[in-house]
Design goal:
This protein is mainly alpha-helical and 257 residues long. Helices cover 77% and strands 2% of the residues.
């Protein structure tokens, strides 16, 4: 395929993915918005006032970047895992695989669809947070880079999960038993400086902590761990998962009957 034809194939897959989650916006965009409003009301107005300041900011200002990042992570992951597994389950993915479309174009199309949903939900949550907080962005480049790389990383993870999944129950295993616990212990609701020394050391091995911390640094200018670790870790993980996903597409493992 020529470069122009590859671009058309990429945009076709991307448009399909965007249309899919915008067509069912009541199931994809509205629920995270309602959930985040509840978080902002409970932690901002009801509990946050009793907690006071954290790292020099009001509690609602402190948790807002974490809540935004949590919405981006869960939605970018869920979009690709559910969309690609549905295509695999309905065997429509076989039509894409036998077409002359290069594997990296197929992968980029699905992943960018996940990124689009993650960014859309992140933007919605950010706009809602302005009703409860006075957020300002301290470092624009870091904020945009971290949110883009994080949504890309979890879109790739969702793609690999969809390839290995045999049933719709398998698609929900990773978010339920791995993603959610890591997110809740990833410094979304607290600073790890509040933890005892041993648990601070354990928390450093949680990758989501570095993503949330770097995003919070981009917005508020405060950090619990070195921000450079988030840049290096995210870049390395995106490259590795992209290579793994491409290899799985090339071999056709769990995709071709």
């Amino acid at each position: 395929m020529t470069i122009h034809e590859q671009w058309i194939a990429f945009m076709t897959i991307l448009r399909k993915e965007v249309k899919r989650f915008t067509r069912i916006w009541v199931q994809t965009l509205l629920p995270p918005a309602i959930t985040m409003i509840l978080y902002f009301v409970i932690f901002g107005k009801l509990i946050g006032a009793r907690i006071g300041e954290m790292s020099g900011f009001s509690y609602i200002d402190f948790v807002a970047p974490g809540l935004i990042m949590m919405a981006v992570i869960t939605n970018s992951y869920a979009n690709v895992s559910s969309s690609f597994f549905s295509a695999k389950f309905q065997r429509s993915v076989e039509e894409i695989l036998v077409s002359p479309t290069p594997n990296y174009v197929i992968l980029l199309g699905f992943v960018m669809g996940g990124v689009a949903r993650g960014m859309a939900v992140g933007l919605i949550v950010t706009l809602m947070s302005l009703c409860f907080t006075s957020l300002q962005v301290e470092h624009w480049f870091i904020t945009v880079f971290i949110v883009l790389m994080t949504s890309t990383l979890f879109s790739l993870a969702g793609f690999i999960n969809a390839i290995y999944a045999n049933t719709f129950d398998d698609v929900s295993i990773v978010p339920t038993f791995i993603l959610t616990p890591l997110t809740y212990f990833g410094g979304v609701f607290y600073s790890i400086n509040l933890l005892p020394g041993f648990w601070q050391q354990v928390s450093v091995f949680n990758p989501i902590l570095h993503m949330v911390n770097a995003f919070r640094y981009g917005m508020l200018g405060i950090t619990d761990v070195h921000v450079g670790m988030a840049f290096a870790g995210l870049t390395l993980c995106v490259v590795v998962l992209f290579a793994v996903a491409l290899h799985l597409l090339k071999t056709g493992k769990r995709l071709r009957a």
